[in-house]
């Protein structure tokens, strides 16, 4: 059994990582940490874990951690991961970074969108972008995996089949994305107070979301071209992202052409499902799974197409995909612990 | 005091009409009806009305209704309104129809989208489309007002300023619309059961929503051209519609140009508010009001623009706007009863 | 028109006060303040107020406030009201205090439950407890009204009819109370983050809630005796309190006896409604009203009785009742602005 | 691998049974059925099951079912189970009945509360009431297990430790119970429409809930005495039951006495957890688990005690407990498939 650690185990993604890893058949969860001062048992913090795991949760100390585990999940705020990963990697550990720190290849881009100079720029090109459906070969044996953001996962699974198949769209694709509240992390915030979000729905960071360059880079990595516009909205629910993508194709393009592109892209994928014609997924269809469900429609006379992609932002959008990446990097069956 | 009636008073829109009309300074709510067999007091059905109104609510009988009121709000399912309105109009009554029956000028279009031959086709061109911000002059003194649908209201308030100003967009505008559950009406439905909608979010009637031709006709009525794609989604909340509109303008178009178009269109409008740069409305900002709030952004280097429009689907999207139309048609101050 | 002020206008209760007072027929909202540093227009903070009110909202400064208004609503955190009210009262102003500071007659009790020595102890006995249905005569012309807490309002409206009628219960009455989240105020708090409250329900401050002595004092003020146990719970919704009260009466007590007590207590009350046998209110029945709805049942063979009381915690539980108290204190019709 | 069947697989409880059994290490889900006319793959009805199970779901036909499985979970409406179980039992199958049909030992009681004559009265005394923490020995090897109702599970786990320890309460214990909406089943119902339940909270079936006799019988089965009052409420959330129990003990009873009773009752129980002093569970603590969490407090000077019990109504309150019962009846480890 491989020993694994979750650094930052008490945020929503960290908690989900602990939950998944506690039931994983090929690893043993051996170390968890959290910024909280007071050491506690992780199963006392999340009581549903009782009987499944028995571990102290204390602030991260490299000297304890290095001896405890072989694979490290970093579920840390951005700018913290890039200061934590180097020592782990230097000691031969494998790192799955759930933060944004290693997702953009260009340090200037990182600085522009995350407001701080990158602390570990030379590793940016070495880090592997962990979207298995498109970059599986690079993830195998990777030492440092940059786990994709939740919105980029949702968007790229709707965009990259087109890039791979060379089916180009005209003008800018629209990516209208909606996320549940856990996407914002576990923190005190007046704007995320129950009564501000409940019975409400709003756009935020319009044309200014930090996940936009990540989507652009993901598209480029897959050899794709094509412009897009990206707007994010906050849904009054816990978990789930639904992205509605709008493409303009030449009038007369048959819906079957689009459907073939998606069905062949995902025919062998265990975690992506293309719905039949006329069926579209809701976020509850993928709740607490590592799946992405996709529905699509195309109006032939105008060439307008709609692709809807649904994931759980903590599942395929974060912790689930991180475990899928670990499975690939460590040679386990890709679905281990995820079904 | 003008006497008014609400036919179909126990659906969500009917209830909201009763609530608003009970506090209106220039009218007296004199007659309410509902399909429910058992006659009841309306204030027993909606107990918060106690002390504000005292009226029997029984099945609609024209012989009772005609003597009771001068203005009739028809809050009926489509295909029922067009069978109810003629007798009222023939008796000199004024009708504000909240259903879809008189919104489309072409009976063939109605039949295609509502699945039934129109029963009163000759009145379709006589009916006035009740979007006051754009068709105010026609609404004044109108005998038959077709109150706009909730989605069309939300979409057209984001489209028509461009049509009026002659600011054309390229390709198809995207209208990504999201609605709360009261938009579907008060009815038993497994798909609208709490646990199906709660913690869920999904697209529905993709590229096939019956409000699409209404938006197209509204655009045409205002002299606008331009294609659009329209997709609707179901939000897990009671009330509110938020539409996110995406336009492609020529690169280099300044944001100020777009802002000027919206600000001048709505400068004198009491019920539409354009937010300052960088601010976008949420549906809670307009909850239980007759207001529409609009936010916008434009990226000059690409010409991509985003317009967000928020209304309460039962307020500006239905009952509030119906009362605004009555105010116009009857010569009352436009805001009477609505603030 | 009497000029009124709301001190603390941007909390949930303050906002509701502004909303109600902006539509009140006999007063003019003349001054609002908030701790927020930056002066803003109140209608920019709450955009749905646009067209109804036009007022600067800035930090409270007594020198500005005293000249601006005659009646002051203090919607302040406890311990702040008792430092703000004295200067207003000394200048002849009328004060409706929505905080807990003047609700308990005994300063020792205050100190024990609110953790601080009372700053204005001599006024505690002069302050009038503002539950109009039971203390209406004392509220008329009162200079200082202590507006009841939300839980105590809900509980006392279910207890005091028994006290007044001399119908004693055996042992301890159980008050199982459940509140929506706005009851906790508008603030950043990890525990009130959307994803902590949503899809959750929990008891809190079990046998230790600071509203317990207020209920005990309210009972005593009405001449009632009888023990009770009080537990509060947090509901995943914005507004509403439902209290379920359990009484033990002697076996054989007829349900009609209990019903008569409640119906005669509230027969002339505009804001309290006793439901018919077999009907029980939900919090949505009283949403955004100043009403309290009550349902009751008694099992004669055992003498067990259940009384359910529903209010809107921001309506009858705070702002609505505060305006009702102002109406009484100032000689307006009791329902002015509240229907 | 034992072959198991779920009869009624598309209701909320049936779906949860399928989900749990698909991951159970010692059984193979071999047959599922549903009233729905159209045969479908169960993994197409619940797409998150794809990759985990591949089974047709069609209307129940005994001739197919008998050959397919050894253990049958009946997730059927009451009155249907008692017509389905006999043939299965006569053919040597084991039955875990999730309906109410075999929970009450007395057919007259059944008829009074479920409105129909019992169709299989002779088996009522043979059926074992499946609350493992208290009736474990009888469940081992049982052929017919009556799986407890959700409310009774929640209530009895708070009552039976007292019965077993002989700690009697005075008067009637109050059981104030609140449940999420899945407890009402998956069905079209205007009263369960999203907008009726959302932002609402109400009591229902006050002093008239059909689970009351089941609680009384459960208490009796454990040798307990003592009266209780039981009221149920509907929470605006999907899953979870929280019951707040109020007991009157003699003044001076130490809290430690109560705590000892609960801690010793559950010390060896894997699925019941007693929280430390001052801590109370919320329903989210047990979401999607087979656990019951309990918190308690006692005020020594008055003898008033509060016990709070939280379960997931579909987990420990239905499907989870049903699998726990199967594990016991079939000799598997009790926690198999449940952690």
What is the strand and helix layout of this fold?
Four copies of one chain form a homotetramer.
Chain A: E1 2-7, H1 12-22, E2 27-33, E3 40-41, H2 42-45, E4 56-58, H3 62-68, E5 71-74, H4 81-90, E6 94-97, H5 107-114, E7 128-129, H6 132-139, E8 144-146, H7 150-165, E9 170-179, H8 194-197, E10 202-204, H9 212-221, E11 227-234, E12 241-248, H10 255-266, E13 272-274, E14 292-299, E15 304-311, H11 315-330
Parallel strand pairs in A: 1-2, 1-5, 2-4, 5-6, 6-8, 7-8, 9-11, 13-14
Antiparallel strand pairs in A: 3-4, 9-12, 10-11, 12-15, 14-15
Helix pairs in contact in A: 1-11, 7-9, 7-10
Helix content of chain A: 25-40%
Largest interface comes to: A-B, 44 and 44 residues
Q: Tell me the quaternary state.
A: homotetramer
Which consecutive residue ranges of chain A, at least 5 long each, have pLDDT under 50? none
């Amino acid at each position: 059994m491989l020993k694994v650690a979750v650094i930052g185990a008490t945020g929503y993604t960290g908690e989900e990582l602990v939950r998944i890893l506690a039931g994983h058949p090929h690893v043993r969860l051996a170390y968890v940490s959290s910024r909280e001062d007071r050491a506690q048992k992780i199963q006392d913090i999340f009581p549903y874990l009782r009987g499944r795991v028995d571990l102290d949760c204390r602030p991260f100390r490299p000297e304890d951690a290095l001896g405890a585990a072989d694979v490290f999940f970093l579920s840390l705020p951005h700018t913290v991961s890039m200061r934590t990963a180097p020592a782990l990697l230097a000691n031969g550990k494998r790192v799955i970074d759930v933060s944004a720190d290693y997702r953009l290849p260009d340090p200037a881009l990182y600085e522009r969108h995350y407001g701080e100079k990158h602390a570990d720029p030379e590793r940016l090109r070495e880090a592997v972008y962990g979207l298995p459906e498109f970059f599986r070969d690079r993830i195998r044996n990777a030492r440092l995996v940059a786990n994709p953001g939740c919105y980029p996962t949702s968007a790229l699974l709707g965009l990259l089949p087109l890039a791979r198949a060379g089916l180009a769209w005209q003008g800018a694709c629209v990516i209208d994305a909606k996320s549940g509240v856990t996407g914002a992390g576990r923190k005190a915030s007046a704007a995320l107070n129950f009564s501000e979000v409940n019975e409400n729905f709003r756009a935020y960071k319009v044309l200014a979301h930090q996940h936009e360059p990540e989507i652009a880079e993901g598209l480029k990595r897959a050899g794709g071209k094509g412009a897009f516009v990206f707007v994010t909205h906050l849904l009054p629910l816990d978990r789930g992202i639904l992205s509605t993508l709008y493409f303009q194709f030449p009038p007369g393009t048959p819906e079957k052409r689009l459907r073939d592109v998606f069905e062949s892209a995902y025919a062998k994928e265990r975690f992506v499902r293309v719905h039949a014609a006329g069926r579209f997924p809701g976020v509850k269809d993928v709740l607490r799974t590592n799946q992405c469900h996709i529905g699509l429609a195309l109006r032939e006379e105008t060439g307008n197409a709609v692709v809807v992609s649904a994931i759980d932002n903590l599942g395929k959008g974060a912790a689930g995909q991180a475990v899928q990446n670990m499975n690939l990097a460590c040679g386990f069956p890709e679905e281990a612990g995820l079904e």
